[in-house]
């Protein structure tokens, strides 16, 4: 004590005051530059390449053609109708599952939750292919069980498959919102004489109405951007994404492709940013005071039809994924049901092993990079950039806002030719036959760019919740911003890191639309193998690929959890405890 | 009190004079969780007269809110019965009980305007447009909300939200009004104003009211009777004055206001009074029925403001020494070390310049009329 007291006070003066440094910390600056470079080469340049081609002089007449050709206009209408229907059906399905989960007193809700999340993990192909096998013209269920010759190819099949594949996003969002409603509001209504149905109609639905818009828009965007399902299930029903893909791969007409891309970009970007704007509005749903009361689960007879509906949907989901697994080990599922390991052997040990290995390698490289940049971009946006924050935020988000097909075509346009300045080659070809590393660089880059936004979004959410004082306390004690990020911020938002890593890996492994345009003979990717297997009718092989891919993703989830640590469950437990009472 | 016939199947029962008697009979609530069964409310029996304002008071976790929620119908009682005007209502769901609750969070519907919030219950009752308009006008006027009909709840201050919540509960003309700590989100000044407001409205309409709070001041100033609860059980049911002057247990005396507990051995007991020797003086004081002559664990409860300090000026020593004095504005608190331990004495209305200094030798006198002999729980 005495030593401390006798120390001359002024000694602390100069260090504490220090020379004022208005300039940003070097580490932070480096991160800003790295993020900008990534976003630029991964998203901005390809997008600009598409736009440049689409507005080049030889492209302009194509617009007049497009808007006068009845074929093209039908494609545009098809796309919008598909987006709308998937938005409505997917959101409704998500609400159904969320309502059952949050409000019905029924058994087996945990299992229903897991079933509702299954579509996140597996590639959309699995669902599309299984749908053809089960519910198609010669479907095991539609024809075998009910004797109907139903033509699943077309709009109905697409809506069915896309709604089932995409609804988990709506489910999770609506579940969170339902659980966030102050139970006292429902009790107040109940207390004044409202019946269950009246509460749903006058309180719950009006309060959730704004919350239904965001998932609708998000599903709309994802549905019109989807390429895989229209290729497998579209039949005569052509949409912009599949049309653009055919223009590149079948007709080698990049100009038309770019034009289709731009026309697809308009509703995509509008809906995507409409959705973000809608979510960011300052909506006050709760008034002063803590939420009180407890959730009253529906216990009357009315729960059974609703539950039945959810069970039916769950049964369909299970049947589809069951088909994938069973289909992988039967000769021709539904026709020749003999057990076989040939398909799995082909995938794991034979021709497919190369694809599995390549995909794993690329995804393993892309995952940490994407998760890292997701966090960094979020951290820069929330904490370090002010006026330019929205720009970086926007750039980071382009990976999902721009349809994968458009991004893929952008990569082709921007990076297929070698770039020369004079005679000097500044940029070698990254895409196509002669690309360096067999196009691996472009594939990994595409994975990263497509995966960054998910981690970025969760991290922005987590960081906004985290009071800046916590970081300021660390900086105040003398830590540099990077040190603060490493030792204070990162541990606190570890759940966001976990989500980012898991989601990045799953997205990379299952990504199709961008990747099918980037694969070369030297690089094989599981999803493009599935596409070729499925479109040539080799369903067994397609199922085997899907099974292996799903297994790999699940193993990776477990590994990521093991390495990063399971910090996520903390908040979950608290909320679920509250739910139980 | 004559029991009026109750239409248990109708959603609305307009209160008639003399209706609204609420009886709780051995009401018990047990929650079964992973860590075993917890009894949240244990054998609560209570008879609330029609038009009475009764407060459930106790520390958090004492079971007062659970009791209220059972009355409202949000929780089912494990055992016991609830009667409204002599009819058992245990089986009625909340929407069929002619009661209205004012929530701690107000629970105003954020997607409706003030008018829509207030009209909500009336609409559910399928009242005519004119009826709704009339009731609305009355509610708005009596709650000072005229001109705010079209505002959204989040545009209102806390006090205004509170009044809308009260108006919404009142217009459905419930037989029983339930309050779940409705003032805990308001600041102190507003809280005082709202207390008076709630009481005024309650008296005006003569609606039986159950009010839950952990604020003893709130309970004292508003209630006809207070129910003090502790650890799931009822400790005492009495008027505020009775509770303050004649608490039935050390817990109640300690929870309501401040009290000194001086160990005392009753020498003689005569009906409801006893003779004890405390601080060197023999006193005849009122005693709780559980007090037994010569019993141990008996304490004399003395409120700080009923004690008097006299400085010993002639150089002698008194029975106590002032340890510390704290100035509160209208009153001064003294902590005095005595032979019976440290006691707190409050002097009201004294000139602060004449406050006794620390270390002053004092005599301590107790007003036997206002002291009460108790046994330790």
Automatic annotation (TrEMBL), chain A:
Lipid bilayer topology: Multi-pass membrane protein
Transmembrane parts of this sequence: 30-55, 75-99, 111-137, 157-178, 199-221, 257-274, 306-329, 360-382, 394-415, 427-449, 539-564
ABC transmembrane type-1 domain location: 76-273, 356-560
Ranges annotated as biased composition (Low complexity): 8-19
Compartments reported by the entry: Cell membrane
Chain intervals for the UniProt region annotation (Disordered): 1-22
CDD domains per UniProt: TM_PBP2
Family: Belongs to the binding-protein-dependent transport system permease family.
Name of the molecule in the record: ABC transporter permease subunit
Automatic annotation (TrEMBL), chain B:
Record-given protein name: ATP-binding cassette domain-containing protein
Matches recorded under Pfam families: ABC_tran (PF00005), TOBE_2 (PF08402)
Sequence ranges assigned to domain ABC transporter in this UniProt record: 22-256
GO MF annotation list: ATP binding
Entry keywords, A to Z: ATP-binding, Nucleotide-binding, Transport
Keyword ATP-binding: yes
Matching SMART domains: AAA
Domain of life: Bacteria
Record organism: Micromonospora echinofusca
InterPro entries: AAA+_ATPase, ABC_SmlMolc_Importer, ABC_transporter-like_ATP-bd, ABC_transporter-like_CS, Mo/tungstate-bd_C_term_dom, P-loop_NTPase, Transp-assoc_OB_typ2
